[in-house]
Design brief:
It comes from Corallococcus exiguus. The chain is α+β, with helices and mostly antiparallel strands. The chain has two domains: 3-144, Jelly Rolls (Sandwich); 145-191. The chain has helices spanning 3-12, 17-26, 81-86, 107-116, 120-144, 147-157, 159-164, 167-174, 178-192, and strands spanning 29-32, 37-39, 48-53, 56-62, 65-72, 77-78, 93-96, 100-105. A hairpin with a 2-residue loop joins β4 and β5.
């Protein structure tokens, strides 16, 4: 399972055997039960997580109600970029939606790798750019897409999420109430059915 992180980096840039082994040696793997919070609102984030197995949900509290902002599954990074970079309290929560195994990254471990292998810094920068681009795409979808369009995109790009996440959390993610999500699903299902032939007079 640990090799998933090495494989991820190798998709970003080629790695020598020595570099790959250094990543493996520096890895701290943590297993978390469903419901475990990796970050609480108000905390300053000091860790980044790479999901080896499981699912992490990011959410905010709006008027006392949970609003899901993102779901992160295998081979994805989970981090509060603004909180980590600016040393400011996070305005959201990160919780394991399933029993989850993650690699825990810290600035100190990153720095140790950079000193041994300076080019890791440029690789990490490319990873960060990828994570930022994904976050910007999610944010843009809230500004430009309807809830139905967001649901359709999710069903095409991440169909596994529809099976792994409760409907009320999925509804809050696309920006509607659970009953509205049910109507969206029915509408989509109806459109997907072949038209019933009319009887001839």
């Amino acid at each position: 399972m640990k090799n998933k992180l090495v494989d991820y980096f190798r998709r970003i840039a080629p790695l020598s055997d020595e570099e790959a082994q250094a990543i493996l040696d520096s890895m701290v793997v943590k297993s978390c039960s469903k419901g475990t919070h990796l970050l609480m609102a108000g905390q300053v984030s000091t860790e980044a997580y790479f999901v080896l197995q499981g699912c992490v949900r990011q959410y905010s509290l709006v008027d006392g109600e949970e609003r899901s902002n993102g779901f992160f599954t295998e081979d994805e990074w989970v981090l509060s970029i603004h909180s980590m970079m600016n040393r400011t309290p996070a305005d959201h929560f990160m919780v394991c939606a399933e029993d989850t195994t993650v690699v825990v990254g810290t600035e100190q471990r990153e720095g140790d790798l950079y000193r041994r292998f300076p080019r890791f810094e440029s690789i990490s920068r490319r990873v960060m750019q990828k994570v930022l681009a994904e976050q910007q795409e999610r944010f843009a979808s809230y500004l430009t897409e309807t809830p139905e369009q967001r649901y359709l995109k999710l069903s095409k790009t991440r169909p596994d999420i529809l099976q792994r996440i409760p409907q009320y959390q999925l509804a809050s993610y696309i920006g509607v109430k659970p009953e509205s999500l049910s109507r969206i699903r029915k509408r989509i299902a109806t459109r997907g059915k072949p038209a019933t032939p009319r009887r001839r007079a």
